[in-house]
Amino acid sequence: MAKKRTKKRKLKGRSILAAFVILVIIGFILSYIYTLKISSITVKGNNLYSEWEIIKLAGLDNYPSSMQNIAGLIENKLEKDPYIKKATVKKHFITEVKIEVEENIPLFYYAPNKKTVLENKKETDENFPVPTLVNYVPNKIYDKFIEEISNIDYNIVKRMSEIKYDPNEVDDERFLITMNDGNYVYVTLDKFNKINHYIEIIKEFNNKKGILYLDSGEYFKVIE
């Protein structure tokens, strides 16, 4: 009977030792994973900020520990910035971070208020390379104008130099846009999205300068 007890004690001791070794191995693996640093970062959706600026805003510029910077924390850091509406962060293979941002981009400088207007209609004192809306626009039309210009390809917005509210007897939602290339565009708010095709339209006129009427008829008048 004494021999059987000894064997049971040995088996129990071996089980405890094996469990301890397994726990040590697991602890070592978890400790190793916890200290793994971020190895690569990709950024998408950025126009206003460079990739490196997004990485710095996310607090990842020194490529810190991946496990200490979970996706939700990175998103919160980015969304605290007034020029970022939404951030989505995904991780692959623990150390690879993919960031996609939706920016609250500056749309135009509103001269009457001396403010830059952002996509969410908020205003800022900061200066950006955006077109200038030179004159006062009635509130109802102004709100609609912001909605329409926010839906325009940002590369086209950056081609605009000056915007003037220019109603006529036919349409009180008419604007005159001066482009950086020296052309002018008349457009109404109900047809504002047509300016997305500006580059394609202008190419048809062999770089001649003139006035593009998108408010009526979509024709181009060459300026001699």
Comma- or semicolon-separated keywords:
2 domains; 224 residues; Rossmann fold; Ubiquitin-like (UB roll); three-stranded mixed beta sheet
Protein architecture, described:
The protein has 224 residues and is an alpha/beta fold. It has 2 domains: 35-103, membrane protein fhac (Ubiquitin-like (UB roll), Roll); 106-222, Rossmann fold. It is built from 6 helices and 12 strands. A 9-stranded mixed β-sheet has the order 6-5-4-7-8-9-10-11-12. A hairpin with a 3-residue loop joins strand 2 (84-92) and strand 3 (96-103). The mean pLDDT is 89.
Structure at a glance:
This protein has helices at residues 2-35, 51-57, 71-79, 139-149, 154-157, 198-203, and strands spanning 40-44, 84-92, 96-103, 106-110, 115-118, 123-124, 132-133, 160-165, 174-179, 184-188, 210-213, 219-222.
Any idea of the CATH topology of the largest domain? Rossmann fold
Distance between the termini: 116 Å
Provide the spatial order of strands within the biggest beta sheet.
6-5-4-7-8-9-10-11-12
Total strand count, please?
Answer: 12
Overall pLDDT score:
89
Report the structural category. Answer: alpha/beta
- Level-2 CATH architecture of the largest domain: 3-Layer(aba) Sandwich
One letter per element, helices H and strands E, the order comes to HEHHEEEEEEHHEEEHEE
Radius of gyration from CA coordinates: 30 Å
List the helices and strands and how they pair.
Layout: H1 2-35, E1 40-44, H2 51-57, H3 71-79, E2 84-92, E3 96-103, E4 106-110, E5 115-118, E6 123-124, E7 132-133, H4 139-149, H5 154-157, E8 160-165, E9 174-179, E10 184-188, H6 198-203, E11 210-213, E12 219-222
Parallel strand pairs: 1-3, 4-7, 7-8, 10-11
Antiparallel strand pairs: 2-3, 4-5, 5-6, 8-9, 9-10, 11-12
